[in-house]
Amino acid sequence: MNRRGPIEIDGRVAVVTGGGSGIGRALAEGLAQQGARVVIADVDEPGMAATVEAIEKRGGRALAAPTDVADAAQVQALADRAWQAFGGAHILCNNAGVALWGGLESATLEDWRWVLGVNLWGVIHGVHAFVPRMIAQGQGGHVLNTASMAGLIASQGLGVYNTSKYAVVGLSETLAKDLRPHGIGVSVLCPMGVATRIRDSERGRPAHLRTAAASRPEPVELIGRTLSPESVAAMAIDAIRDNRLYVITHEEGLEPLRRRFQRLEQAILSKKT
Q1: What digits encode the pLDDT tens for the residues 7-62?
Q2: H and E: helices and strands count for the chain
Q3: Which 3-state string (H, E, C) describes 19-57?
Q4: Residue 18: how many other CB atoms lie within 10 Å
């Protein structure tokens, strides 16, 4: 099976991690508005309940599944829940994420384990738990992985976060090639500033991975506009429907991307001189 053309969202089952707030909530609500039944995963149970309530008020169908995406067993249980409740899953949004600021020279092992556990292993766990089942059900589908412009452009003071998001971009680019024969598309979402609670990520850090809060630097100020989660989710849903790999939400990212690839080109050309 090799999917060509747009995917139909109406009547499909979507799973959204980090669906208790921000981009995840907007994705869940947007997919539900287009007729998908939605499984919402998060560690924020009140947030999940609010997302479910908002969807059901509009006549949609949704359920909450408390999930820590850093735990492989919990993500496997999330997949079980989707198949038990709705009979399958067709759209997987690996969206849960956290942010951490500070130079790499001061990053602790707890910092690395926390951020990579959510941002990278959360995506890996989602792919591992859902993709083989999606292939087996033989109905096509789509995987959306939330990365960041920080997965394409490195910024000082965001090294741990950059590392996690660069890995998600590379994973997504490869996954798109691997899943093409199965009719499953892949998109990677790379926003810049979005009006979410990611600057307050420490609220969800597990106790065993916490470090001294007093030493935490101020968040890095991002260039460009701050978009609403709803506008970013709408772009992502369009990319899911149209099977587009890259979702670049901010035009302000074009010039930094151009400079990066000019430096890469120059590195190659300079060897000839």
Answers
A1: 899 999 999 999 999 999 999 999 999 999 999 999 999 999 999 999 999 999 99
A2: 8, 9
A3: CCCHHHHHHHHHHHHCCCEEEEEECCHHHHHHHHHHHHH
A4: 31
Place 110 in a pLDDT band, splitting at 50, 70 and 90: very high
CATH architecture of the domain with range 13-272: 3-Layer(aba) Sandwich (3.40)
Write out the E strands in the chain.
13-17, 37-42, 62-66, 91-94, 141-146, 184-190, 193-194, 226-227, 246-248
Output the DSSP codes for 115-134.
HHHHHTHHHHHHHHHHHHHH
Domain ranges of the chain: 13-272
The active-site residue, picked from 82, 161, 164, 191, is 161
How far, in Å, are 88, 173, 185, 229 from residue 242 at the CA level?
Answer: 21, 16, 9, 20
Radius of gyration of the chain (CA): 18
Q: Is the pLDDT of residue 245 over 70?
A: yes
8 Å CB contact between 30 and 7: no
Which pair of structure tokens corresponds to residue 82? 């989707």
End-to-end CA distance of the chain: 48
CB 43 within 8 A of CB 67: yes
Residue 166 among the catalytic residues:
no
Q: Dump pLDDT digits (tens) for 186-239.
A: 999 999 989 988 887 788 888 888 887 544 666 666 677 899 999 999 999 999
Q: What three-state secondary structure class fits 65?
A: strand
Determine if the pTM surpasses 0.70. yes
